[in-house]
Amino acid sequence: MSLQVYNRTHSLLVALAPDAASPGWLSKGDNSWQLTATTFVGLQSVPGLVILYGSMVKKKWAVNSAFMALYSFAVVLLCWVLWAHQMSFGTYFGPLVGKPVNSLQNVFLLRQMETTTHLPNADYVFYQFAFAAITVILLAGSLLGRMNFYAWMMFVPLWLTLSYSVGAFTIWGTGFLHHKIIDYAGGYVIHLSSGVAGFTAAYWVGPRHSHDRQHFPPNNIIQILGGAGFLWIGWTGFNGGSPLNAGLITSLAIINTHICTATSLLVWLALDMVVYKKSSVIGAVQGMITGLVCITPGAGLVDPWAAVLMGMMSGSIPWYTMMVLHRKYAFFQSVDDTLGVFHTHAVAGLLGGLLSGLFARPKLLKMMYRLDCYGPGLLHSKGELHRGLRQMGYQILGAIFITAWNVAVTSIICLFIGRIVSLRMDEEDLEVGDDAVHGEEAYALWGDGERMPKPRRLRIPPIRLRLVSTPI
Fold first, then answer.
1. What string of DSSP letters covers 18-37?
2. I need a surface site. Which of 28, 204, 300, 407 has the fewest CB within 10 A?
C-alpha cells in the first residue's frame, strides 16, 4: 500500500471512529453539570468560609481564621488524591475503610465511574474532595481564636484520614452501614461529624483568652453576609450534585434546599425578634446555615411541603439549643465552641437525618438509588410499618456511630498532637492575635499595628543677643 493510500485510509477510519475525547458512555450534559456543581461546592469554602470566618471573629483573629480555612482546602486536596479518596470510596479493605491507594492514574480518572452513571471518575474524585474539604473547614469554626496553627497543620490530614474517610466509607462507600442509612448529601458524613469533632477538639484545645471569650464582636458584618451568600448559593451544587446527573432528583433537591433554608432563616429571625426584641443579622445567618444543613440528608428525597416543615424545625430547635440550653447548662459552658458549630451542624445534621427517615418518599428513593434497600420514610410506610420503623432505627444507629467515632478518634488525634506541639497558643500570643502568629494584620488602618517613628529633635542653634548701646 502506497503512503498516499495509507494516509487516506487512516483519515477515513479516524473520521468514522467514535470521538476518543467523548466516549459513548459519557454524557456531556451530566459531565458539565457535575463540574459546575463541584465548582459551587468549592466556592463555599474558598472564598465562602474564608470570608465568613475572617469576618465573624474579632479583628485581631481575622487573618488566622481565614488562613486556617485556606490551608485546609489545599492540604485536603493533596491528601484526597494521594490516599483518602480510595479509603472513602475505593476497594473494600474492611468494614470501616477502603484500601489507601492513590487516585492519580489517568487509567482510573478517565474511566467510567459506574455503569449507572455517565461520568468519569475524575468528576467524582473532585466532587467528593470538595465535600471533604468543607467538612474540615466547618470543624475549624469551633477552634478559631486560640488553636496553635502548627497543631492545626497536623490535625487536618490526620482527621481527614482517620475520621472523615471512615464516615464516608461506612455510609457512602461499601462499609458496614452501606445501603442502610439515608444520607442524601452528608447530614451525617459531613455535618454531624464536623459538629461533634469540632466540639470535641474545642474541649481538648481549651478556651480562648478570657477577654476574647467575653467580648468577641465580629469585625465586618457586611462581609459576613457576603460569605453567607457564597454558602447559600453554593449549596445548589452541594445538594444538586449528589445524584451525579442532571435529572429530576437534581431539580427537586435544589428547590427543596432553598425552600428549607428560607423558612429556617425566617423562623430564627422571628424567634430573635420575639425574645430579644431585635432582628439579628448574625442570627439570620445562623438560621440560614441550620436550614441548609437540615435539608441536606433528604434534599432530593422529600416533598416540598416536608422541606417547609424541616425548615421550621431547623430554625427553632437549634435556636433553642444555642440560645437557651447552651447558656443554661454547665456542660456547654465548659467547652468554648467559638462559632457554635455544634448547634448549627451537629444538632441540625442530626435533626435532618432523623427527619429524612420520617419524610423520605419511596418513589424518590428508588429514583435516586435504583435499589429497594432503603425503607420508606416512617410517614409514608402504610402497609410497611415494620420497614419504616427499621429505617428509623438505622438512622439512629448511624447517628450513634458517627458521634461515637468522632468523639473517640478526634480525642486520640488531639492527645497525639499535644505530645508534639502545644494545641493552644501561648497566653502572650492570644493577647496579640494575628500579628503574633503570622506577623500580619487584617486591616491597614492608621496606627494599627504600626510603630510610629520616634520624633527627631530639631537642633536649633542658640541665638546670641548682642547688646548695642545706641546714642540717645
1. PPTTS-TT--HHHHHHHHHH
2. 28
Low-confidence ranges of the chain (pLDDT < 70): 1-20, 444-472
Residues 6+ positions from 467 with CB-CB distance below 8 Å: none
**The pLDDT value given to residue 457:** 53
DSSP 373: -
End-to-end CA distance of the chain: 132
Tell me the pLDDT tens digit for each residue of 137-178. 999 999 999 999 999 999 999 999 999 999 999 999 999 999
- pTM exceeds cut of 0.85: yes
Q: Which of 219, 53, 75 is nearest to 143 (CA)?
A: 53
Paired residues of 112 in beta bridges: 120
Q: Is residue 344 part of a domain?
A: yes
Q: Which domain holds residue 87?
A: 28-438
Nearest to 365 by CA among 351, 348, 389, 381: 381
In a domain, 109, yes or no: yes
Domain assignment present for residue 48? The answer is yes
273 lies in some domain:
yes
Chain-centroid distance, C-alpha 451: 39
CB 187 within 8 A of CB 356: yes
- For the chain, what is the domain count? 1
Half-sphere exposure of 41 (CA within 13 A, CB side): 28
The contacts found for 58-61 with CB under 8 angstroms, 24 or more apart, are 58/145, 58/212, 58/215, 58/216, 58/217, 58/218, 58/219, 58/433, 59/219, 59/442, 59/443, 60/432, 60/433, 60/434, 60/435, 60/441, 61/144, 61/145, 61/212, 61/433, 61/434
Place of cell 432582628: 279
Where residue 370 falls (left for φ over 0; alpha for ψ -120 to 50; beta otherwise) is: left
CA dist., res. 310 & res. 317, Å (int): 10
Measure the CA–CA gap between 55 and 48, rounded to whole angstroms. Answer: 11
Cα-to-chain-centroid distance, residue 459:
62
- Give the C-alpha separation, 424 to 149, whole Å: 9
Lookup: cell for 445: 488602618
Question: Does residue 367 contact residue 242 with C-beta atoms inside 8 Å?
Answer: no
Cα separation, 155 vs 116, whole angstroms: 37
SS3 424: strand
Which residue reads 429497594 in cell numbers? 372
Q: Give the CATH number for residue 205.
A: 1.10.3430.10
Structural contact between residues 218 and 267, judged by C-beta atoms closer than 8 angstroms: no
Position 115 scores a pLDDT of 79
Per-residue model confidence (pLDDT) at position 467: 47
The grid coordinates listed for 194 are 464536623
Distances in Å between the Cα of 314 and the Cα atoms of 266, 342, 350 are: 11, 13, 10
